[in-house]
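User: My advisor asked me to double-check a structure prediction for BLUF domain-containing protein before group meeting. I don't want to rely on an old file, so could you generate it fresh from this sequence?
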Amino acid sequence: METSSQLLSLDQKKEEDVGTSLFHCHMKQRRLFNPQEEMKFLLHRLIVVSSLPQQLADRKDLGVHYEELNQRLQRYYQGDAITGLLLLYPTCMLHVIESSSEVLVSLLQDLRDMQERPHCVLIEAPRVLVMSHDLPSRLFQQWSYKVLNVLARVGGMLSRDGPEEEEEEDTDTLVSTTLSMLLKLGNHLLKATKGSKMPLGSVLDEVPEMLVPQDILVQLLSREDLLSPQQYLQAYHTPLHILIDSERTWPPPEQLRCEF
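Assistant: Sure, here is a fresh prediction for BLUF domain-containing protein from the sequence you gave:
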């Protein structure tokens, strides 16, 4: 018969066996970084770009659209906070959204639905830059939007005549540059607005050099290797078909049947 000390050691061994997977180690790290975090959902970040139609008279209409959509989503997905930043350039937009996967899929569905409308005046030809999963922390503390009146940047200089002819970067380089600048901008906003009553728009006005140049976004919108919201959702909802080793047998199973 097993003694109480032996049973205790067995229970401890079971706990060690159960808690030694990569998943458990990762969740322990998250709790160490933020012990007060409610582990209700994993945090994800979506970054999309889109052209703005010429018939869009007031870019604030798009900001109002997302304000109302975020309010509806937060009422439906209670507890799934939405943070991020919507930058409205003269000819395009850059949108960063942080929330649960359900919220981000709903935002992609809204983009797809707007694009499929016959006379949509808010967005045009949206593209998904990045979907980042299971983030340790948020880059933004709230969601907000900003209407920008910026000049195109050329070779580190500002030009009123638009970008000159120059060698275009590949898509990976453009995406990497965009993500790097957004990360620096998010960290700056976090420090600048912490304990301050200064509006976010005023902070952005003080650091125009930290904004992603519009000409980079225009180049990204012309790249066919970036998925549209419809293409991304189609891939998202398509089940994986994994070919296991047992299916690589020869001859095929059909030829192994015996006929009597």
